[in-house]
Each structure stands twice: as C-alpha cells, then as structure tokens.
Amino acid sequence: MTSTLHKTNRANILVVDDTPENLRLLAGILSEKGYLVRPVPNGKLALSAAEKMLPDLVLLDIMMPEMDGYEVCQRLKDSEVTKDVPVIFISAINDVTDKVKAFAVGGVDFITKPFQVEEVLARIETHLKICSLQQTLQEKNQDLATAIDQLQATQEHLIQSEKMAALGQLIAGIAHEINTPLGIIGSSINNIANFWDENLEKIPQIFQELSEESQAYFFTLLYRATHQETSFTSREKRKFKQKLTGDLMAESVENPEEIADTLVDMEIYENIEHLLPLFKLPDWEVILNTAYQFASFKKSISLIQRATAKSGKVVFALKTYAHFDSKEEKVQANLHDGIETVLTLYQNQLKHGIEVVKNYGDLPKIMCYPDDLNQVWTNLVHNALQAMDYKGILTIETQQQEGNIFLKFTDNGKGIPPEIIPKIFQPFFTTKSAGEGSGLGLDIVRKIVEKHEGTIAVESIPGQTTFTVSL
C-alpha cells in the first residue's frame, strides 16, 4: 500500500474530528485548494480508512469520545502500513503538557483552535513537501541498491567473459578491488575456524593442568606476541633467531633452535631473560605452542578488521581510479609495512614452495594513499606467484636514490615474451585462459602508481622478471 502523493497532484488528506461543523469547515477549505479530503467523525473510522487507503497526511482532533487523538496517533504509528504518515494535531487544547504528549506519540505538528486558515494551509503544505522529499529519498536509495546489485552481477559476468569490455575500466576496476578484501577475510576466517575446531575442547584441560607459574608465563608470551609494533626484515629476523639460539644454548636449554624459531614467529626477538626459567619447566612446550596458537588467532582477527575497513572504501575508490579527483588526503606511511601486510595475507601460498628474499633499504615514511599502494603490492606479488606456479624465489628490494624511492619485485618464473611486454598494462589484456583473469590487474596498478606521480616499468628474460615501481 503506497501513498497517492506521487501518483496524482492531489494530496490525500484524512481529517478526523467528532464535531461536524469542524469537519465541514476543514473539508471545504482543503477541497478549495485542490486536496482530496476524506472526513471521518471518530478514531475507529479513521484507523479503518487509513488502512484501506493510505493518506498522505492526517489532521487529527484530540478530544473525541471512545478513542482520543493520542490513541489514534499511537495506533497509526504502531502499524507498519501507516507508521510513516505525518499526523498534525488540531485542537482547542492549548496546554504545554498536551502539546508535548502530542509530539511524544508521533505527531509532527500542533495547530491550536481557533486556527487561521493561512496557518493551516502553510503547515499542511510544509509537511507534505517533507513527506514527498522523504519518499523521493527512499526511492533514490532503492534505485542505488538496485544499481549496486546490477553492478555486482555485471562484474561476475565480466570475469567470465572479457567480451564485456564495453562496460569500461571503471566498473571492472571495482570488481577487482572487491576481490582482494574478500579473499583476505575468507582466508583469515578459515584460520580462525581451524583454530577453533582443533583447540576448543583442549583449552579447558590445558589451563586446568597448568600451574599458576606456567599460566603467568603463558600470558607474558601472549602479551609480548600481540604488542609488537616494529617490523623487521627476514635478514634481521634470522639474526634475532641466531642470537636467541645462542642465549638459550648458553643456559643449557634443550631444543634451542626450535624455541628460538617459535619466538621469532611470535615476534618476540629479545629480552628473554625473564622467560628462561620457563624452558626448564616440564610443560614448557605446551605453554609455548598454546601461546603461539593464540597469537596467530589474534593476528587473523586483526587482518579481518583491516580487510573489512578496506572493503568499506571501495565505493570511494571508483572516483579515485576513474576520475583522479578523490578528495581523500595523503597520509604518512611506511611502505615496508604495506608490503609485509600483503606477504602475511599470502602466507599459505608462500610457505608451500616460495622463498621470499627481502632486501629492504632504509626508507623514510612518505605521503601517500597507503590502501591504494597495498593494492599495488598485492597485484605484483600475486602475479609473481602465478608466474612461478607457486614454486620459486620472490625477491623484494627497496632503496632510496636521489629523492626517489624504488621498489622492485623479482620472480624467477618463465618470463614475459618481448612482444607481450608493451601490452601488459593495457586494460583487458591477458594471456590467461578465459575465466582466469580479466586483464585489469596491471592496469589498476599503473593507475595507482601514476596517481602518486610515479612510474612502473618491467624487465623480463627467461628466469627473471622484475617490476620496478618508482615513487
């Protein structure tokens, strides 16, 4: 059941008053102004009339027998059908308390009798305009929701068939942007689900068997693992591991390499003197492994939080990528942090045959759009892994030279044929089989780099392909 306000130029007004003279007066005034008026003498008939044909506005008296105006208004607001119909009270009651009650039960206005005709007409016109604007807004919102649904359906078809190129770069770019955070969330949720399935029943028993001293060590490990903010390179982590191994061996701790490896994975790199007594306890392995699993659980949650936040910005990314006039401001960011985030997201793919070599230089923080640059690192890493069939060496080098920052991603895959290189940054160009790629990844990368007033270049020979981003 919908309002007649948009269907005709005559607004449908329901007038409710138990005094016949008032009904005739109001009906005459409103009819003269072109309104469709339905006068009813009591509240029960008013509710029935409103249900049968939804009014655009209700003029409602308060003092009526059997059912007063307050109750009529409350019932109108309780109904899913009539809850959005504006109700204007019109009454001889002039007490502030009564007016407050009128607004409390859902009224939008209050006119005191005796009334001025001009005032009544002005208030009616105002609230009809407000109602009309609200209906228009709802329709626009519905149109927008429909458009988004159609856009998503279009993207799914575009991934399967690149003959949809007529849709243009903008629409396809949105689909590509959405895929990344969805993949991150899915991967992290799987990690959380596995942790839950494997450990839920064990946790109570583990903690029951731990002494107070062991529990204290557990919480110390967990706190340190989840409060490490500094990122280190693989080379630095190897040095930490060697140092930790030496410290553990000096204290005659058994399995020093295994313990050092787990501590580094938990991002506990130094200052372990107060933890040394732990590794003398008979249940040290249970404590360490349980803390490691909980720390990994927490990291998966953090990844989901970041991915969810990024997916919320996809709509704004359309304007950024398509028109290059985004109003978002650049912020200072550490480029290494962004690369490490991407590598963490791809950990499952990396650990089954990919060696990652990181040669990070001393880079300053720069003003940039970090979320956009993370999309660049994601595409370059993903392409490198595919080029190597997920088995090989991925080398990431960063350095600063003469005010410019260079970031190089090198894989030892089969390489790119020379005749293909000039085309790889073109939209919709792909060498993959139908349904495996839309040919938009490197086009999006190029746009983001150019938005940062940078460049991207590629050099390739069999066994070595390098993408170089200059900012």
Automatic annotation (TrEMBL):
**Gene3D superfamilies in the record:** 1.10.287.130, 3.40.50.2300, Histidine kinase-like ATPase, C-terminal domain
* Enzyme Commission code(s) on record: 2.7.13.3
**Which Pfam families does this entry report, sorted A to Z?**
HATPase_c (PF02518), Response_reg (PF00072)
Task: Kindly give the InterPro entries that the UniProt entry links to this protein.
Answer: CheY-like_superfamily, HATPase_C_sf, HATPase_dom, His_kinase_dom, HisK_dim/P_dom, HisK_dim/P_sf, Sig_transdc_His_kin-like_C, Sig_transdc_resp-reg_receiver
- Enumerate the UniProt keywords alphabetically: Kinase, Phosphoprotein, Transferase, Two-component regulatory system
EC category: transferase
The residues that cross the membrane are none
Classify the source by domain of life.
Answer: Bacteria
What Gene Ontology molecular-function terms does this entry list?
phosphorelay sensor kinase activity
Q: Is the Kinase keyword given for this protein?
A: yes
UniProt domain Response regulatory: residue ranges: 12-128
Say yes or no: keyword Phosphoprotein present: yes
Name this protein carries in UniProt: histidine kinase
